[in-house]
Amino acid sequence: MTSLLLRHVRLVPVRTAAPPDPVSLRIADGTITAVAPELRPEAGERVVDADGRWVMPGLWDQHVHFTQWAQVRTRLDVSGTSDPAEVLALVRDHLGSCRAGDWLFGFGFRLTDWRREPTVAELDAVTGDRPVVLTSGDAHAGWLNSAAFRALGAVPADGPLTELAWFELMTHVIERNSAQDGDAAVRAAVEAAAARGVVGIGDFEFSEPLLTWPGRVHAGADALWVRTAVYADHLDAVIEAGLRTGSPLTPDGTVRLGPLKIISDGSLNSRTAYCHEPYAGSSNRGVQNHDRAELTALLGRASAHGLRAAVHAIGDAAAHEALAAFAASGASGSIEHAQLMTARDIATMASLGLTASVQPGHLLDDREATAQLWPDRAERCFPLRSMLDAGVPMVFGSDAPVAVLDPWESMAAAVHRSADEREPWNATEAVTPAEALAASVDGRDTLASGQPADLAVLDRDPLAATGDSAEAAALLRAVQVEATLRAGRLTHATGPFAD
Fold it and tell me: What is the pLDDT of residue 79?
C-alpha cells in the first residue's frame, strides 16, 4: 500500500496535549507510522499539504439502527405534526407520487405531540389497498393500515402498535423497505456518515447479524468499521458458531460482532419507559419488557459465551433493574440511553464498570415531552455531568433514525443543552467540548505514531476557546470535514485531498 504524508497539520488534543505548532504525519498500511515537526517525503509517497488544517481521530456513532437510518432518508416525513389528521393529509398528498405496487413508508410522528390516539380505520379510509407503515420518531410505535397488516400476515389492531407488539413486526417492515429501496439507500447513508468524519458505528439494527454487513462490505459499502449487535433471537446461532464480542465477521475485521442487545423497557414519547413513579396524571409506570430474572438469565448466558451486553434502559426503574441484573450475572457492557437515573444508580453503574452509551440529541427532542410527562423528575434527565463526575465511562451515539447520524450534532447537544433560544435544560449536567469529543472517538487519544490511521481532517479547531456554551455548540455544528480516512484509506475527500 502506498504511504501518505500529511504535511502542516495541527493535532486536535483529545485527552493529552498536542504540539502547539503544525506537524507532519505519515500513514502506511493503515497505521500512523510517524509524527514529527517535519518529515521528508519517501519515494513513491503521496504528499498532501494540509496548510494548517486540523486533524483528529475519526468519529464513532456508538448506537445506530443503520438500515432504518438509510431508509428514513427516503421515507415520508411526518414529524412535527400535532394531530393524526395532519399525517393523513400528508399521506394522501404523497400517494400520487408512489409507484404502482410500492408500499408507503413514513417516519417521525410522536404520540405525545398528538391530541388524540389515531385509528387504523382512518388510515384505511385514505390509503385503501396500498400497504402503509408509519413509524414513530422514537421507533417504539408503528401505525399501520389494514393492507399492511394483511401483507405482513399479522392480526390487525385498532390503533398504533407499541413495544413488543411493534418490534415483532418491525423486522419484516424493514425487510420490505429494503427490498423496495435496494442497496442504494445504504450506500448513500454510508457515504454521508463518512462525510461527517465518521469511521465506525455500533449497529443495533433488528437484522441477521452474521450476514447483513459482511454482504454490504463485499458489495463495496466498506467506508465504516462496524460492530453489529445480536438480539436474543439470534443468540443461539452466534453461540453455536463460537463467536464472541469482537470476533471478526469479515476477513479484514471491518465488521465485528458487537454486544447482545436487550431492550428492557420502552420510550418516553410512547409512555412506555419503565419508571419508579407514574407518568404525570396517570397510574402508568411504563412497560418492563424483561423482569430482573429474565434479564439476569440473558446477561449470564451472554457473559458465559464471551459476549458483552448492551441493555436499553430509558426509565429510572428500568435502569435500576438492569444494574441489578448486571451485578447478579457478572456480565460486562453498557446501559444504552441512561436517560433517567437516580444518584444511587449512577454510583452503582460506576462501581460495576459499566459504560453509559448516551444519545445527547434526544435531550433536544424530549424536552417538551419531559415537561409534560415527567415534570417531577426533569432535573434527573440526561445526567451526563453526574455520570462523568461519578467515574462512569461514557460514549456518544445518535440512535439514528431517532436522531440524525451526525456526531457533531450530538456533541453540540451535550455541550449546550438547548435547540433554540431558551436557556440550556439542566445546564449543570452539560459537558465540556473536550469531554464531548473524547466520548465520540471510541476511546482514542491525541494522534500519535502507532495508532490506527482512522482520521478526520477539519477546517477549524473544534475546541477553540469560545465565550459560552452556545458559542461552543455553534462552533461544533459549523465544523466541516474535509477528509476522512479509515485504516489509512480516504473514504471522504475534498479540496487538496481529492486531487
Answer: 95
For the entire predicted model, the pTM comes to 0.93
pLDDT at 208 (0 to 100): 87
For 259, residues 6+ apart whose C-beta sits below 8 A from its C-beta are 227, 229, 230, 245, 302, 307, 308, 309, 310, 333, 334
pLDDT reading at 1 higher than 60? no
In degrees and rounded to multiples of 5, residue 488 shows phi and psi of 85, 0
Residue-level pLDDT at 73: 86
b/e map 88-99, b = 16+ CB within 10 Å: bebbeebeeeee
Cell of 453: 490511521
The cell numbers describing 134, all together, are 408509519
Say what percent of the chain tops pLDDT 70: 100
Q: Considering only CA atoms, which of 303, 433, 361, 388 is closest in space to residue 63?
A: 361
What phi, psi does 86 have (nearest 5°)? Answer: -65, -40
d(CA 374, CA 166): 24
The three-point CA angle 232-234-235 to 5° equals 60
- The full set of domains in the chain, from first to last, is 1-57+444-499 (2.30.40.10), 61-65+183-441 (3.20.20.140), 66-181 (3.10.310.70)
d(CA 360, CA 23) in angstroms, rounded, equals: 33
Residues in the chain: 499
DSSP 206-254: SS-TTTHHHHHHHTT--SSEEEEEEEGGGHHHHHHTT--TT-BSSTTSS
